[in-house]
Design a protein that fits this description.
Layout: H1 4-15, H2 20-35, H3 44-47, E1 50-54, H4 59-68, E2 77-79, E3 86-91, E4 97-102, H5 104-108, H6 110-113, H7 120-130, H8 133-136, E5 137-141, E6 158-160, E7 167-169, E8 174-176, E9 179-181, H9 183-186, H10 218-222
Parallel strand pairs: 1-2
Antiparallel strand pairs: 1-3, 3-4, 4-5, 6-7, 8-9
The structure holds zinc ion (2 copies).
């Protein structure tokens, strides 16, 4: 793994700004990976062994994902909406898992670790760099049972909704009175009042209509062989 400062810089770049959350997240990821014995998590041979559960959708989560290389699209990043500054690092090979929790004490101790800085965020940023891991974090060894349907790899199961026909992947269907349903059909949704609409330029295709795409004729080039090779695909 790169040095802390190198990781912090690239993490802040990817995230869009340098913030206390980047410092905490980079350190959280470094500690988590060390605890499960994956010190090069982004390397091809280790990336398939790592699953990370993040418990907040805040700055820290971006840093954890950046340093570890876990991704939602690879199914190696799991978002648990707990509102807790914590992440659990799982080594799929050994089964070892550690939950690293960012402490509230670290917040109250920021002034003690960076007394020369008065402003809150710069003070936290400097202090979180100086604190030992033992002040910044609590660690729990945990067991994580990961269902086959939550693992990386090809889709293991698909079921069409008996009401609307929508195909539901990875056993996220709901069974109601013996009927297979997608979540929207059970009303368990974050949206409401869904109605199908048309939209302007609805027959637009990349490269065919230049009103929206100035990169005329780039469609061929874009599908060419210059792209970096993916680690693995599903
Ligand atoms: Zn941020
Ligand atoms: Zn449905």
């Amino acid at each position: 793994m790169d040095a802390f400062e190198v990781l912090l810089e690239s993490s802040a770049d990817a995230h869009g700004h340098l913030c206390p959350g980047q410092v905490v997240g980079v350190r959280m990821a470094m500690l988590g990976c060390r605890l499960i014995g994956l010190n090069e998590p982004r390397r091809h041979d280790q990336i398939k062994k790592l699953i990370v559960y993040v418990e907040m959708d805040r700055c820290t989560a971006d840093a954890v994902a950046h340093v570890t290389g876990v991704k939602l699209g690879r199914r190696s990043l799991k978002f648990m909406d707990y509102g807790i500054m914590a992440a659990t690092f799982v080594n799929l090979e050994s089964g070892k898992a550690f939950r690293v929790v960012s402490t509230e004490e670290a917040r109250s101790l920021a002034a003690a670790y960076a007394p020369a800085i008065a402003e809150k965020h710069p003070q936290q940023l400097a202090a979180y760099k100086r604190m030992p891991d033992s002040v910044l974090f609590r660690v729990q060894q945990v067991k994580v049972k990961i269902d086959d349907c939550d693992l990386p790899g090809p889709t293991r199961f698909k079921a069409p909704c008996t009401r609307c026909g929508q195909v539901v992947r990875d056993q996220r269907e709901v069974i109601e009175k013996g009927q297979v349903l997608c979540r929207p059909c059970t009303q368990e949704t974050y949206f409401s009042d869904a109605r199908e609409v048309t939209w302007p330029d609805m027959n637009w295709v990349p490269g065919k209509n230049n009103n929206q795409s100035k990169s005329d004729g780039n469609a061929e080039k874009m599908s060419g062989g210059d792209k970096p090779r993916p680690y693995f695909c599903q």
